[in-house]
Predict the structure.
Amino acid sequence: MSEHSLIFEMTRYIASLWKIHPFREGNTRTLSTYLYFFLKKHNYSMDEKLLKTHAAFFRNALVMASLDEYSEYQYLENILSDAIIYKVDRKPVKKQTTHKYEKIKDVEMKNYKYNYHQHKKE
């Protein structure tokens, strides 16, 4: 599979998985762990530090890719194209990170505040 095809298919696949939301918290961490092992099984590697460093961007990229007919996949494609490490002749080929992860649309990631789920008190 070409790099472009892998990124295209992977963004749609993990966005679909992320939409299921089986947990109140930890969906993005669970998905990144799944992605790591999925890629490993298929002889790819992943720069998990990149996703950890830019966790807010990664999470919001998943949100943008999960809006059904309004989905915007380019943010998720950008970070995954930098995070997935391809292997040529069984040797990892690490690309330079070329994309910036400071903004999604008009939202600056440094100002982004995640609203954690609150338990309702009865």
